[in-house]
Amino acid sequence: MVPSLARLGGRRWRYAISDNCTHSAAVAHALAGPLPPKRATSTPASFEPEDGGLWAVNIHGFFAGGGMYWRESARLAQRLGWRVINPSLPGFGGSDCLDWNDLSMSGLARGVARLLDHIGVETAVILGHSMGGAVAVQFASDFPDRTLGVIYRDGAATPAWRRRHGPVARLLAPVAPEIAPLADLLSAGIIDLPDLLVGRLTSTVKSLLPDLQRNVRALGRTLPVAALLSATDLCSQTMALGEDGSIPIMTVWGCFDRIAHPGTAEEFAALSRTEVLWILGGHSWMLARPETQASLLKHHPKGVAFLEKVGARLQIDTSINKSVS
């Protein structure tokens, strides 16, 4: 993984690239370090994309950052031969914030497209977790020719996750209906925390802390993103992608997720015309079990079928690019 910095639209985006040669200790140290100087805007010269390889973008959830997912991206690179870009979206993980006027899901998707341009990547598989799932859907809708496939994980692109039916919401609704949904969401987050402690605890904590510390320092500047997410409704975009069917979509959900509850998964699956692949875990299963996504793609029938569709789409896109050039 190669930590770096890009200047996109006048703002700095922190990101890292994972390939087959990831050295976890070096990556953890680099991601924990300070931001490079503002003048550092180019991809490191030591990293050159190879012809014919498959790229992926691993987009994080709210109050996270690209560095939190580097262990998962390393597994995807090592086991599948992918080159995975882990961006930190504006306001998170040390990346500069966007102005209110520029803040939208389309704006975030355009930023991802600019990052691909910066690195020199034409097409990619887009993985999106939680808020990143909404960005992934928006990217696929806005840039279908650049999207090889979407892996949608416990996402927030559709509004069902905001309809809270947990015990806290039912308890508070009669006396404090305005705060009941938020209180239920916070309690769901607390309930989800023990799932992060499963597996190699030390490695998980080390991967989370650097971006978490940055996000705490920038908390006030990320509140607009929370407001954006709470108002996001990409049902029409999701339905259009499902009806078109040309972009393969893999829907993966933690069966114990109470943040984006099972109703959210069912809503997205119905709109996108996909089947939910339920796995053991909570909302952020990929952080505690970073090998899970690669294993699903290599061994589960739905993952194998997804890769076959991506491979067919990659061949089509490659032939188109060659004919145009």
If classified by CATH, what would the architecture be? 3-Layer(aba) Sandwich
Shape: globular
Neighbour order of strands in the largest sheet: 1-2-4-3-5-6-7-8
Q: What is the CA-based Rg, rounded?
A: 19 Å
- Average per-residue pLDDT, rounded, comes to 87
Low-pLDDT runs: 22-52
Percent strand: 5-15%
CATH superfamily: Alpha/Beta hydrolase fold, catalytic domain
Individual helix count: 13
Number of domain modules:
1
Helix-strand pattern: EEHEHEHEHEHHHHHEHEHHH
Q: Which structural class fits the helix and strand makeup?
A: alpha/beta
| Helix content range | 40-55%
CATH topology, by name, is Rossmann fold
Mind describing the biggest β-sheet?
Answer: 8 strands, mixed
- What is the class in the CATH system? Alpha Beta
Total beta-strand segments? 8
- How many angstroms does the end-to-end distance come to? 30 Å
